[in-house]
Predict the structure.
Amino acid sequence: MKLEESVNFFSGPNSVELKKKYRNYQTYTNEDLEFDLFQGFHTTNTSIIKSPILEAGDIVTNTMTNRTAIVSPQSAGKVMPQYITKLGFKKNGDAWYLCYLLNESKAVKHQLYKTMEGTVLRRVTVVSLKQLEIKFPQLEEQQKLGELYRLLVIRERLQNQYKNKMKQAIIEIINREDINGGSK
């Protein structure tokens, strides 16, 4: 079944409309999307509201980087630009399972790679996303797999935070002991 048979799509406004109508809003960026992905925000909201103003729990995908995330409360209220597309299930579906499919599934990546446009910067189009052939398992299986993926990205964030703190602590010790880099 094609993804568009199960999922609704809503793209952000173009840059002119963004500057004109939404100048009082912060723009949702790729950094916001990456931050949101690793927050692992739990949502039961799988529908779509046709508004470029994001709400916590919205499923969004960046067509430039081909990354999908769930909007966290920290990013709620920002306006999505044209290269961000909001996704929502027409019926029941698990948001984190959809994130897994679009971010990690080899079968989906293979389909998308064949349809990417551009010679220097290859990007995905909304049309190619809509045409993806997807087999959705039963909702319970989606929820189980989606929760595993959500926990995986949270764990990855925590491991990166730990790694960065360890690096800072070791550099601080080296700086203290080194006659050229520290306090001696």
The beta strands are 7-11, 59-62, 67-70, 84-89.
